[in-house]
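Hi support team,

I've been running sequence recovery on a batch of backbones for a student project. Most finish fine, but this one hangs at about 90% for roughly twenty minutes before it completes. I'm not sure whether the input is malformed or the queue is just slow. I've pasted the structure tokens below so you can try to reproduce it. Let me know if you need the job ID as well.

Thanks,
M.K.
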């Protein structure tokens, strides 16, 4: 059985950092989420970068719908696998 990884896409670094901090409180995530800068294809401008919050979920206990709604509060979304 492979591990499950959830990828939340956020509009900027501040939102991604807030989401990463809030994940522990709201969802009980114990492992530190990984923040990744995702420059949009063909864009050189750093302002056009999205940020990804990668959450490992080996126990498969996080609800995708709840994560998507949570990301939406920060103008983001859950990337579909």
């Amino acid at each position: 059985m492979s591990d499950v990884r959830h990828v939340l896409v956020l509009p900027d670094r501040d939102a991604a950092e807030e989401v990463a901090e809030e994940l522990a409180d709201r969802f009980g995530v114990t492992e530190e989420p990984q923040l990744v800068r995702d420059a949009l294809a063909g864009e050189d401008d750093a302002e056009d970068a999205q940020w990804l919050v990668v959450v490992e979920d080996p126990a498969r206990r996080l609800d995708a719908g709840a994560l998507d709604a949570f990301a939406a509060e920060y103008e983001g979304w859950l990337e579909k696998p």
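--
Follow-up from support: It reproduced on our side and the slowdown came from queue contention, not your input. The helical segments are 13-27, 64-72. No action needed from you.
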